[in-house]
Amino acid sequence: MIVINCVKRAMSLAIHHRALLIHNLPTESTSAMADKNTDRPAPTMADVARAADVSKSTVSRAFTQPNMLGVETVDRILEVARLVGYVPNHAARALSTGRHGNVALVVPDVANPFFPPLIRAAQMEADRSNFCVFLGNSDESWRQEDKLVERFVSQVEGLALVASRLSEERIRHHAAKRPLVLINRDIRGIPRVLIDSSIGVNDAMAHLADLGHERLVYVSGPASSWANQQRRAAVRSGAKAYHMEVTIVAAKVPSYESGRAVVPDILASNATAVLAFDDLTAQGIMTGIADRGVSVPGQISIVGCDDVLGAATYPSLTTVSNRSDEAGRAGMSLLLDMLNSRAVGDACLVLDTHLVVRNTTAPKPNRAPRRPAGAD
Amino acid sequence: MIVINCVKRAMSLAIHHRALLIHNLPTESTSAMADKNTDRPAPTMADVARAADVSKSTVSRAFTQPNMLGVETVDRILEVARLVGYVPNHAARALSTGRHGNVALVVPDVANPFFPPLIRAAQMEADRSNFCVFLGNSDESWRQEDKLVERFVSQVEGLALVASRLSEERIRHHAAKRPLVLINRDIRGIPRVLIDSSIGVNDAMAHLADLGHERLVYVSGPASSWANQQRRAAVRSGAKAYHMEVTIVAAKVPSYESGRAVVPDILASNATAVLAFDDLTAQGIMTGIADRGVSVPGQISIVGCDDVLGAATYPSLTTVSNRSDEAGRAGMSLLLDMLNSRAVGDACLVLDTHLVVRNTTAPKPNRAPRRPAGAD
DNA sequence: CTATGTTATGCAACCGGTTGCACGTCAAGG
DNA sequence: CCTTGACGTGCAACCGGTTGCATAACATAG
Predict the structure, then answer these.
(1) Which CATH architecture has domain B40-88?
(2) Dihedral angle at the C-alpha atoms of A289, A294, A300, A301, nearest 10 degrees?
(3) Which residues of B touch A160 (CB under 8 A)?
(4) Per-residue pLDDT tens digits for B36-65
């Protein structure tokens, strides 16, 4: 066995182990290798047909339309198939039927905690209908997203794009060739499910206004994100309704680091409350602020979005909660509906959100927060 | 536009919107529908061949072996292809070449924060080689995992199983038909990458011993998890080395809830330190313990594994850190190596781990922790 | 006993690419 | 001038299924 500890780069390790493993193949391993892909190339329908003494067509029907055949024939074929270890070939089937039994799911960032529950729910929903799901990570880039979609399109029956960064034109282009649903992106004529955070954001602003806050910073997310546009708009309208003054600070990508990075801008604004595009950003902001000796929520209140951290932060984060898994399930369900019945149209499902008040919001301090104690 | 707020079950909403959307299709939407899938069924190679006045073979070669053709021929064909919007058909290609350009990645639980970084890294690594990746969620069940693998196998070139719950026999079975790598599962003869947490666990026990702790609880994870077996073994050997008494408490699945559930057992054990299978479990334990009025780390020290929560908990969690993304990248890289060069063997890459000391560990209290203050 | 179904199965074409082999052209070598 | 080889391209078979149509067997009705 080869052991390499603490390898830093995949490339280097790939080279290493390959170089090393030429030798020491225990006999069992060698025989295992002999098995591998050396056995006849997997039984096909023709093999089964021969073994069961019927035609290819009959074998095919035994799997797809059993009631068209004699019961004992079907039984015999299935038995034979099991014995020889036959597994139908998806690709071949897709070629003649046009039905691949696959769907694609594309998200901006798998590692952002907003998405995993959504992915999981979508995956399991697809699984219930025996669909396989391709996962794509667009890395917040529309080019990457477009490339992925293009690569997927020839082997899927439908696509679900989550928080798509693509232009409306590209989305329509793709939707024209394959059934496509959007999650957290709002384009007329394309079926979509939306998490309406404007409700929760509005609640949050009412909550802050109640606490006496008058100056708010909204830390925005990706410009091409529908959720961001919607949240910003909700902040704007909330500002009017509750007579608050709003400053917008931009964090390009939603992440812990982005949050930390915008802390100076936040403190410079003289605001007493912060609404962040998402919890990750909010968390970064919290630690950044704490590092500068400003207390939360004593001097500044903070509200996040998405409720993906639970009560794990300290102080526990007040946030706008939604059920992203629900969006995933609903989106996939919608897509599967489209695949079964052509009866689709301008469907739009809206899931609502609500404010969860925890411990990062408190009444406005008497004086505006001091400048950070430390330098920089 | 149809709006349905606060829908609870996907099924019901699917029915709803379908019922509702028969009407109100704005004209633009209607025309969009007309486009959809109504246009000729996507241009094929034959279409391009006709348009470029060459044979199918030539078009094929223009894409796959351009240097076999005259340069101007290639240029013309590519141009024509672009014009008619031709996109090669993965499935058809796979049928004749046997190369699908797909790989499968199966994990126990997408939503467990240990996996998303790994998934993301694996996905992006595959993407660099223009591979599409299927994602499977085994839901911690070997049956589900087996089903997924079976479904994937006919349309992928290789598989990566993360923390597989399958029996060794099933894994060998699958490995015999397709290149397969394991992540966090150790089977001789099957290429694998392992995160060796025994190092970190040992460090953790040394750390606790330094602090004077003599009685430890190990909260175990899934029995079929290799990581769990490894960690438990490391705890056992550490117990010997540092003369600690160890109790094992079982949490079947690694989750926040499981952690909370085992708190009574932990407190009953009279131990002064806890090592949890993973951070999620540790987090559950922390809040459960806090709820009972026992202080961390004052009365009980807690150590997690995986370091997926960062410093977000309060107190921030001491934990055994690893880079799961590195494992994902290395695993996928290894798989791609196998696909390119048949030169594979008994490869085994081991990534190491280290202890990150934060604020949930402290010297052993003078007296063993009291029973919980509240009832139950 | 023949006309008419009904049911179970086989034949062969087709899905959209890939590829071994054959063919034609043109240039260099004998 | 004729061979020989390299080069560029086309033909046709093949990958592993699906499916419309034909056919054979058998039952029922006229």
Answers:
(1) Orthogonal Bundle (1.10)
(2) 60
(3) none
(4) 444 567 899 999 999 999 999 999 999 999
